[in-house]
Structure formats: C-alpha cells, structure tokens
Design goal:
The protein has two domains: about 120 residues, Rossmann fold (3-Layer(aba) Sandwich), CATH 3.40.50.2300; about 90 residues, Arc Repressor Mutant, subunit A. With about 230 residues, the chain is α/β, with parallel strands linked by helices. It has a five-stranded parallel β-sheet, with helices on both faces. Strands 6-7-8 form a three-stranded antiparallel β-sheet. Strands 9-11-10 form a three-stranded antiparallel β-sheet. The radius of gyration is 19 Å and the shape is elongated. The structure holds calcium ion.
C-alpha cells in the first residue's frame, strides 16, 4: 500500500514517513500543493494524507483536484480543531480529518482505519457504471453505454483488470500478470496490440471517447474522466 504524504514541514514529513514505513507502507512525500496531482497520477497512491496549509496550491483545492480525478481515500490534516467543522461543511469528500499536533502513532492508526473502510466499501463496479461501462466477470460480458462488446477472452480480462481499479495505472508487467495465468513469455508489443484492439472495439460503441489511457513509459489505466485534462 502506498501513502502519499503532502506536508510542507520537512520534519513532520520525515516523522510520518518513518512511522508509516515502519507500519509497512510505501511512502512518498510532496511539499508543494502544485506538485500533488503529478504525484497522484504517477504513483497512484492508495491514500493521501493532505495538509491543509500548503505552498503553491491550497489543500482544499488539492482535495477537490484529487476527488475529481479518482476515488482515492484522503485524510485532511489541519492545524486547528475549529477548522474541522468548517471543512466538514464544505463537503470536500475527505474520508477523515486529523488535527495538529498529532501523535504519529495515531496518524498510522487512522490511515489503517480509513484504508480498511475504503476497501470494504470499494465498489469499482459503480465507478465503472459512472462512465457507462458494465462488466460481469462470471458471464464474460461487458457493455459500454448499454451495448454489448464482442471481446476475445484476453481483451475481456484486460478490460476487467483495468476496470478493477479505475484511475489506477497498471504497468505492462502487471497487465501481463493479469492476462496470462501461465506466465508464458509475451512481449510488450503483444500487450500493446491487445490494448489497441480493445480500444478500437470501445471506439466502435463510443467514437472519440478514449476510456483507456496510455501513460507514456508507464502503462495503462481506465480513465474515469475520459476528457480529463492531462496537464492538471
Ligand atoms: Ca502546512
């Protein structure tokens, strides 16, 4: 599990890193509000610990940016207890709020609790339906905008894999692992060609709507916001 720590006080960021790593998490730290989205898109964290007062871009705006991008759990960190009421009133969609000063142990416990909750409630199916995609793994059926897709088994598994975590980037290796049970040798080129065929079939149903995004040099993801601005 990867945690993105957004904190502009280097000492605090390091303390959080130490405790979270000791709890078995991978940790990435970002100090500038303007750099958060790049990190979210690249590292696809499982949870974001987000300080409210940041240089570059305010934590409130960053929270909205993340929410617009993908349903990644967010814990907002504020310096004042009174602030929490105001934040709740703004309905930012954060999953929890922590007030400074905090004990790092408490932060780790809250991170674990939010992750447990979000995994229990995670419904990739509803996230997919929001973009018009329905997948029934037991029946090998996939529909886009209500139209059945005529997919090969490999294309179906590819789509089901990407749809299992909408918004998350899957590397070519992860795609290979998901597509072939027997781990036979398959080239990157084969993956690219399956992706290309799948895209073509999706485009037949919805011309111009590019649901599957290539992330250059990294891999692929199913885009929740097909027309999202890549530079944001
Ligand atoms: Ca701060």
């Amino acid at each position: 599990m990867r945690i993105l720590v957004v904190e502009d006080e280097p000492k605090l960021a390091e303390i959080l890193r130490t405790y979270l790593e000791a709890a078995g998490f991978e940790v990435e730290c970002v100090a500038d509000g303007l750099k958060v989205m790049a990190s979210v898109e690249h590292a696809t964290p499982d949870l974001v610990l987000l300080d409210l007062m940041l240089p570059g871009r305010d934590g409130l705006d960053v929270c909205r940016d993340i929410r617009a991008y993908a349903p990644i759990p967010i814990i907002m960190v504020t310096a004042r207890t009174e602030e929490i009421d105001r934040l709740l009133g703004l309905e930012l969609g954060a999953d929890d709020y922590i007030c400074k000063p905090y004990s790092p142990r408490e932060v780790v416990a809250r991170v674990k609790a939010v992750l447990r909750r979000s995994q229990a409630h995670r419904e990739p199916a509803s996230a997919c339906e929001a973009v018009g995609l329905e997948i029934e793994p037991s029946a090998y059926l996939a529909r886009l905008d209500g139209v059945g897709l005529d997919l090969t088994p490999v294309e179906f598994r590819l789509l089901a894999l990407l749809a299992s975590h909408p918004g998350r980037i899957f590397s070519r290796d992860q795609v290979l692992d998901g597509l072939y049970d027997d781990h036979r040798v398959v080239t990157d080129r084969a993956v690219d060609s399956h992706v290309k065929n799948l895209r073509r079939k999706l485009a037949q149903v919805r011309p111009g709507g590019d649901l599957i995004r290539s992330v250059y040099g990294v891999g692929y993801r199913l885009d929740l916001l097909a027309d999202a601005d890549e530079s944001s």
